């Protein structure tokens, strides 16, 4: 079965972490644009168009991270793309992001978050559907409010 959204943009500061996330998501059937830094993300968005989800490393320089988030939220074609922040600080809150995935995370948590937010986008476009993520579990901060509303156990 194909993932609910075909592509994920992963923006990470560390090459080894970037490659690990990319390999895991590609193994699960996602198309992945994997880039280092905000500049790479902006270039990738021009090439790939609208991703189904953005996974954004919180350790990027604050100005770069803020510029990228602002671009996504102001661009009409990208405005509703979910952004999940990858962070060692489980208590960080940014109004522009849908969830925080606390580092380090295991593959089950990564897959749960990606499926939750990609499926949420698909439901908006296509109507409700039951997903495997509704049966997954993980700490509350790693899924966020949309996951809780959709029935993800925390």
Can you offer a commentary on this structure?
The chain is an alpha/beta fold and 154 residues long. The protein has one domain (8-117): Response regulator (Rossmann fold). Helix content is 42%, strand content 17%. The chain has 5 helices and 5 strands, in the order βαβαβαββαα. It has a 5-stranded parallel β-sheet, sandwiched between helices. Helix 1 links the parallel strand 1 and strand 2. Helix 2 packs parallel to helix 3. The longest helix is centred in the C-terminal third of the chain and has 20 residues, at 107-126. It is globular, with a radius of gyration of 14 Å. The two termini are 25 Å apart. Residues 121-154 have low confidence and may be disordered.
CATH topology call:
Rossmann fold
Overall 3D form = globular
Count of helical stretches: 5
Overall CATH class: Alpha Beta
Q: What is the radius of gyration?
A: 14 Å
N→C terminal distance: 25 Å
Low-confidence stretches: 121-154
Task: Let me know the largest β-sheet.
Answer: 5 strands, parallel
Q: Trace the largest sheet across and list its strands.
A: 2-1-3-4-5
User: What is the correct CATH architecture?
Assistant: 3-Layer(aba) Sandwich
């Amino acid at each position: 079965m194909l993932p609910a959204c075909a592509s994920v943009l992963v923006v990470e500061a560390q090459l080894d972490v970037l490659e690990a996330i990319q390999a895991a998501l590609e193994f699960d059937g996602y198309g992945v644009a994997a880039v280092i830094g905000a500049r790479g993300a902006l270039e990738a968005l021009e090439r790939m168009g609208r991703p189904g989800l953005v996974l954004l490393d919180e350790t990027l320089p604050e100005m770069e991270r803020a510029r990228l988030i602002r671009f996504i939220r102001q661009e009409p074609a990208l405005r509703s793309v979910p952004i999940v922040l990858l962070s060692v600080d489980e208590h960080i809150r940014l109004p522009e992001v849908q969830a925080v995935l606390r580092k380090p995370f295991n593959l089950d948590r990564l897959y749960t978050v990606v499926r939750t937010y990609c499926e949420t986008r698909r439901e908006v476009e296509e109507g409700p559907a039951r997903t495997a993520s509704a049966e997954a579990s993980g700490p509350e901060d790693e899924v966020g409010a949309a996951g809780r509303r959709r029935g993800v156990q925390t």
